[in-house]
Amino acid sequence: MSATRVAVLRFPGTLDHESAATAVRAVGGDPVFTHHTDTALPEGTQAVVIPGGFSYGDHLRPGALASRTPIMVAVKAHAAEGGKVLGICNGFQILCESGMLPGVLRPNASLAFICRQADLEVADADTPWTGGRRTGEVLSVPFKHHDGAWFGDPSDTRVVLRYTGENPNGSIDKIAGISNLAGNVMGLMPHPEEACDPLLGSVDGRALFAALLA
Amino acid sequence: MSNQPLHRELGLLDAEFARVKQLMGREPTDPELVMFSLMWSEHCSYKHSKPLLKGLPTTGARVVMGPGENAGAVDVGDGLAIVFKVESHNHPSAVEPFQGAATGVGGIVRDIIAVGAKPIALLDSLRFGPLTSQRSRFLFRRAVEGISHYGNCIGIPNVGGEVQFDERYEDSCLVNAMCVGIVPQNRILSCAATGLGNRLVLIGNRTGRDGIGGASVLASAELGDDDADKRPSVQVGDPFTERKLMDCCLALSEVGLLVALQDLGAAGLTSAASEMASRGGVGLAIDLDRVPLREEGLSPGEVLVSESQERMLAIVLPEQLQAVKDMAERYELDATDIGEVTDTGELEALWRGEEVVRIPSLFLTDDVPFSEVPQNAAPPTLPIELDTVPEATDLVAAWLAIMGDPNVASKRWVFEQYDQLVGAGTIRRPGGDAGVVRIPGTDRAIAVTLDCAEWHTELDPRAGGQASVLEAARNVACTGALPIAATDCLNYANPEKGSTGWRLAESIRGMAEALTAIDTPIVSGNVSLYNESPRGPIYPTPVVGIVGLLEDASKSVGAAFGRHGDQILLVGYGEPRVDASRYLGRCAGLPPAPDLVKEQALITLLVKAAQTGLMQSAHDVSEGGFAVALAESCINGGIGADVTIPTGRRADEAMFGEGGGRVIVSCHPDHVAAIQGLATGGLGAKVIGTVGGNEVIVTIGGCTTRVPLSDLREVWEGSIPRALEA
Q: With contacts defined as CB-CB under 8 Å, which chain B residues touch A15?
């Protein structure tokens, strides 16, 4: 059986595509870079990752321009058929801007970029995104963003991950990551691809990539 | 308007103007004169410093490319080279801190790209006035925001650096940025233009009026009251375009479409083209009408010297021109054929079909009249008699006060604004002795740091130059990495005044001695002079960047204590002194000169101990002395310590004195003997205590000082944020 094909999107200004591809490979997937001008996902795509970065230099609003590119039409169709989509940081912003996830990501309460390791609490163990982790279990994953305060009505979503301790960015209910009600589209501000290698201090991020292949 | 002749307005001396006319054999055209004024500025020509730099060691078994190219390169095995350089952007940052600092990052990144290397790490060395000054708070805040804005968006992890505050930098802040890249050695690009008829291609941003005269009127003169007028000389950065430019140039290099590559920095097209021509021994003919412009009405001189950002100049085979343009289009960038390689050795420029420039490129790059720097030795300073320094009666209060000194306090407020991680290669993040980054595709890693001992350099320039090198080397070695090469950014005041020229020469001599002693050549560097305002000169500030190699990335060591019951050793040599210490609080006295032989032995010890997995942590004793280093290892590890220092010294001197090469090491009790066995060549390695508890306890001469870890953490982490709220 061949490895699960995972499209890793690449917009102008995307930064984390290579790290995301490495993480997909580490859990046994087959990552394929897919450009913003493409009108279809690669043949046989079973899941999509929208990696972090500064697509279009954050011009207008983070994620706003990327959400209106040709490839996002194909990603929406993929999700509508139940295909999995994981948006990380700028990918989360793109998912919210495209309407695939509810809410918006506002500038951090401090109005500054923050890069920090975080303990994320599994808020809902019944989505596919946290593997076998039980509700209340903690994942160590770093975050790094300027516009990461999720704002919206939590009842429109399933809250998958919450920051523990002090709220680092002012998001509603300390939300770090959400999925749609169907559970197949997931967005989070922290960077699981930076927590997939023991050398980097944590492998807790692997659960999210493994979920793409499940 | 002034009635000065044009050459003086442009910053050229009368003698230099006479030399221009003599070389040219005629009156230069206006654009030609503008080009000379930029290329012969201190910033571009190093006319004051070049003769002094000759003493620095620049060769070694690992050196692939030394100074003279866009950045230096060293062999790190597997056919790979690490490419790096540090550069200043001081004057623009003093005038407009956000854009000044941002474009400082942009400029150094393009130097690395020009060698064909992929950037994998950034570091910054920043110096401002005290945070009690509103102006300094503004400059500091905005410079950090500028670095954050630019560096985060281009996607290069920021892994370290330093921040200092002192009144001497109130009017002349220092913003130095270092970039490290990786490249297969067989793909290293030169800036030498070659191949008659090859095309000259400008890639990236359009050319506008920003940064006109930046290298001459701004960077090569003292700052004064009319600095606001110089704001148009500061460039404006666009990190999104820089990222596309980086991806595009690296893709072009990977498929072999580039004959040569050069970034456009100070003096813009003039500098890039003349460097490429001189280096390749060819001429270049440029059609200025083909340069894509952002606005109308630029003069040919302005097009030639504009410092618009995010532009690179490439030499391309004619038959590959279309392929280059296609690649640029994929990255949504302009790539424009603006001229060709000729055999004249001259830089020619056409404007509206007429020749406006014809200068042998060597006139611009090699014929600047060097200026002898006056060597007025400063009177020697004397060591401080300890009796004249009042002894702290409350050691707890003194300890907390030093922990809260913004120079010593945690720089978390700074580095949390930087993306430290992008690329999934950062093994040791900022806040330790050095940043550690994996070499992509290998099991090895590099450790990098930027350091400077400016107080020491002011008081004893030769020893201070040594100390600056050794502080950086020790920091790299604390992570377990062997220092392999260095870069330097020499920030000094006006070399024509006072003892600045002597301090420059003496500190370079000291640096050369230390670099030779630890077998670490300089492969790139930058000089920034005229960091002086009516209020006076900055301290001589030779910022040193060192890259170290870890053969096994998994063996790197951090500064944090780990396990309860680990033993704490004080490893190294030298005795603490109050001279020029944070405890003394001022730049006075005569700190002891480093012992170069023992420093090399200390580096060897640390590297061996790390390779064999003996150490849990290693942390250099530097500013604030032993008690601060101990507290930092405790805070970073979230665990206390209990130590006894066997000394007959006054307790305050023992705790807070600085000097020598001392490292606080922690290890499992079973490893103590092995570490002590490595301590040869006159190094000490005494066990002084144990890790554990939630207090930090220091006993000296029977007198015990104890502070809850949480109290130390609170002042250390809270100091800078609190100072900024003022």
A: 155, 243, 422-423
